[in-house]
Amino acid sequence: MGLRNIRKEGDEILKKKSKDVDVIDEKIKELIKDMIDTMHKYDGVGLAAVQVGILKKIIVIDLYDEKPIIKLINPTILKTKGKQEVEEGCLSFPNKYVKVIRPEEVTVEALDENGKKIKITGTGLLAQAICHEMDHLNGIVLTDVMIPGTMEFVDPQNNK
Fold first, then answer.
1. The domain containing residue 139 runs over which residues?
2. CA-CA distance, 157 to 22, in Å (whole number)?
3. Are residues 118 and 68 in contact, defined by beta-carbon separation less than 8 angstroms?
4. 3, 12, 29, 98: least CB-packed within 10 angstroms?
């Protein structure tokens, strides 16, 4: 199990744009495994490579719903549909939750960990997670997209 340090609010790297992955080698596959381990350790739904300090376009998502973990390399959003107002948290902003507007449905194209082109359409929470992690790849953080005045702080001891 390879755990990585999650970069937190205020870390300058979170505001930088990630770069394309040119070659999917063992180093990239190891990074993906480490990202999954780190996401699970902190009970996250998604994680972008920039959140562990690597400026590469890599995202992992796990909705904990018996479906395989989603691994996206160099993802591009092809289309979105609808709007939903949702509450959102972020591993880089621990114990903070905000409301944001996200698409109800999103279609993304990317490479999987074997370099195969894949296309995924997600609705609800999956659409939200894809858009959240895509924001990270573009240097956009939770506080940049929140509906003003909606931030809540959660005391981890009392669970709100």
1. 12-153
2. 43
3. no
4. 12
Q: Is 143 within a domain?
A: yes
In a domain, 93, yes or no: yes
Looking at the domain assignment, is residue 5 inside a domain? no
CATH classification at residue 121: 3.90.45.10
pLDDT of amino acid 158: 65
**Of 85, 109, 133, 152, which is the active-site residue?**
133
- CB burial string 5-20: b at 16+ within 10 A, e below: ebbeeebeebeeebee
CB atoms within 10 A of CB 40: 16
Compute the average pLDDT of residues 81-100: 96
Q: Return mean pLDDT, the chain.
A: 95
pTM: 0.94
Q: Among this protein's residues, is 133 annotated catalytic?
A: yes
- Site of tokens 């972020």: 90
User: Which residue type, as a one-letter code, is found at position 20?
Assistant: D
For residue 7, being part of any structural domain is answered with no
Q: Where are the beta strands (DSSP E) in the chain?
A: 46-48, 58-61, 70-81, 84-90, 93-102, 105-111, 117-123, 152-153
Query: For residue 99, is pLDDT > 90?
Result: yes
